[in-house]
Amino acid sequence: MSATPEPFLGPTNHTPVRHHILSVLVENKAGVLARIAGLFARRGFNIYSLAVAPAESGAKFSRVTIVVDAESAPLEQIVGQLNKLVNVVEITDLAPKDALERELLIATVAVDDTTRTSLLDAVAGFGASIVDVDAQAVTVMLAGTPAACDQAERALESFNQVELHRTGRVALPRLGRTAPAISSTKTESN
Amino acid sequence: MQLTGAQALIKSLEQEGVDTIFGLPGGAILPVYDPLIDSTIRHILVRHEQGAGHMAEGYALATGRPGVAMVTSGPGATNIVTPIGNAHMDSTPLVIITGQVATGSIGTDAFQECDITGITMGITKHNFLIQSAQEIPRAVAAAFHLATTGRPGPVLIDVPKDVAQSMMDWWYPTTIEELDLPGYRPEVPLNETAIDDAAQLIAESERPVLYVGGGTLKSHASKELVAFAERTGMPVVTTLMARGAFPDSHRQHLGMPGMHGTYTAVTAVQKCDLLISLGARFDDRVTGKIAAFAAGAKVIHVDIDKAEFNKVRQADVAIQSNVAAVLRALDAKDATPRNLDAWWREIDGWREQFPLVYDEPTAEGPLRPQHVIEAIAAAAAPGTIVSSGVGQHQMWASQFWKFEEPGTWVNSGGAGTMGFGVPSAIGAKVGRPDRTVWCIDGDGCFQMTAQELVTARAEGIPIKVAILNNAYLGMVRQWQEMFYDERYSEVYLNADLPDYVKWAEAMGCVGLRARTLEEMHDVIAQANQINDVPVIIDFRTDSSEKVFPMVAAGASNDDIMVHPLQTGAAK
């Protein structure tokens, strides 16, 4: 979310338990993102990353993928409050181990004749692709797991980075492990 | 049928059965005020938009129907933010209509523009910025549906001026589906397993307490509550938001829990083995230090709002439902606790040892504020509605007035909004013209919103206002005396400035004053004879009076401080 790099989280399969992925289906209406962001801000919930795009069902709905810090507040509270937003249609909680997560990283790296080759080697090493080139710089792209993006980010640290952006992750349940939509099971007993 | 957006808005309100709008016109809302002339809806012209909001709240709290207020854009809209926040905290159903600058001007810092949907996002249940006149019926119908179902709350509709002026083809939604609220499902089927679990906990309990909150009133569950309590024999406490949900005169009623609750209610909750929360939310003013709150109790938490579960206190059984349905289901299971004789013996011992008390009144005054409230109550017609502001007078009103039925106590709970009393009393009287409405107010609160007495006089709304005039911001003074070494910082108000009698008269009301016991009884009798204009009484009360019992902020409820008369300490 912020311009300064977030602390390294470790590979996906070691993603700290405190992070949860909420896949939130919302009505595609003006101000919905502000309602979600405002709720997180006023209740003191932390957002680690956020990705928003129109959902499969066309223009009526959007899907917001929020990686939340479940240590800032109990997940039950975050989901419960989020669910009260009238524009929120469905919330799916994806535990990291049950989720297929992907994220996009793009980075522009300044190169000269001596560093160009080692950059290309590194890029090949972590499976990224070159998307733009000029005499002084190369832009590389990686679509992969958050862990792969973390590795790529570390690998690129040894080069003279001009700019590096990550999108934040999107996720789906792994096949055979369809996560329950929390907001459809409204009655609970502990 | 072609209508303007403004006509469609008024017609939509008529469709929803609205009989009264509290409001004040201005530039952006002007188009909507024009068709109002031709409507059957009564409009109460307020003197400040905050008054409109609190009147709508008073109307809603006294009638159980949603209150409606309408104001213009910019400062008109921001002036009603406090009532919206107040209604949000207390889950009061309101529909607020605000004017907005024309759609083409939004975002340009136009005259009297403000982002009221942005401002109120966190303090409304939902809000709408209308984009076209055709949308108006759906937005109004959705607003009333949202405001009144599930956990009620305020809903705001922002209407740009050009939308109000443009034409639409009249229609009105007749089904929930047409409201197009795919994310809103307030009612859920009752979880039978949870009911069984709750019945089991009840069967195992020896020291249960029914902790009754505002949700019990919101779900109109008083009848079920009385039936359940009498069948099971359980003691009942009613929170500040639930006063009137269970008759104060009932033997099983222990009073209000919390910071200024009765010793018996606070202590019974502390020592219970099963706390059955019915539409309450474990507010910090009830729990005190949360780790020490009812530490030995299992908790059954009933609430229509799932997000209340485990927010403050972990529930052993959580049941998402309206209160009435749960009580009926538990009755059907014949859920009954063990023999409660020993529990009641303990409770009755506390009741006998620590009733609510205050110092003996003196004939020459100053008056005891608690005594004034009891004297007004003793002379009041049955079913009298009481409103209050916020502070000492509010706590004394809650403690010393005897509430016997729902809708008779109108106050600001969660937000603690000073100045709530006068306008909410006006709204209550508009909603229940058959009832006497007393506002028990403080001198500090009165000065915040008293201009609405002009509204009351002009509109023929004869409320009665008792100012417990102790010349101080009394609750702040109490804290400064008890917790700030008697360093009184900015709390003195002066009992004679303003002259409340002259002020009342200037506003077209009757103004009375009482300093002695004889005058007190006399002015109350006079006030009860006046039923055509508002009456304001300046009761001169003792500045040093403090509200007891008291649990200091953040302290354990075990450390409740009782009245000095009960500790043997000199006052």
Short description:
The complex is a heterodimer of chains A (190) and B (571). With 190 residues, chain A is of the alpha+beta class. Chain A has helices at residues 32-43, 75-84, 116-125, 146-156; strands spanning 19-27, 46-54, 61-69, 88-94, 99-110, 129-133, 137-144, 160-166, 170-173.
Question: What structural category arises from helix and sheet content of chain B?
Answer: alpha/beta
Instruction: List unreliable stretches of 5+ residues of chain A.
Output: 1-15, 184-190
Largest interface: A-B, 27 and 33 residues
List the domain count of chain B as a whole number.
3
Write the layout of secondary structure elements.
The complex is a heterodimer of chains A (190) and B (571).
Chain A: E1 19-27, H1 32-43, E2 46-54, E3 61-69, H2 75-84, E4 88-94, E5 99-110, H3 116-125, E6 129-133, E7 137-144, H4 146-156, E8 160-166, E9 170-173
Antiparallel strand pairs in A: 1-3, 1-4, 2-3, 5-7, 5-8, 5-9, 6-7
Chain B: E1 2-4, H1 5-15, E2 20-24, H2 30-36, E3 42-45, H3 49-63, E4 67-71, H4 75-79, H5 81-89, E5 94-100, H6 116-119, E6 126-129, H7 136-148, E7 154-160, H8 161-165, E8 167-169, H9 192-204, E9 208-212, H10 214-218, H11 222-232, E10 236-238, E11 253-255, H12 263-271, E12 274-278, H13 284-287, E13 298-303, E14 317-320, H14 323-332, H15 341-353, H16 369-379, E15 385-388, H17 392-400, E16 409-410, H18 421-431, E17 437-442, H19 443-449, H20 452-459, E18 464-469, H21 474-483, H22 500-506, E19 510-514, H23 517-529, E20 535-540, H24 564-567
Parallel strand pairs in B: 2-3, 2-4, 4-5, 5-7, 6-7, 9-10, 9-12, 10-11, 12-13, 13-14, 15-16, 15-17, 17-18, 18-20, 19-20
Antiparallel strand pairs in B: 1-8
Helix pairs in contact in B: 1-2, 1-7, 3-5, 3-18, 11-14, 12-15, 16-17, 16-23
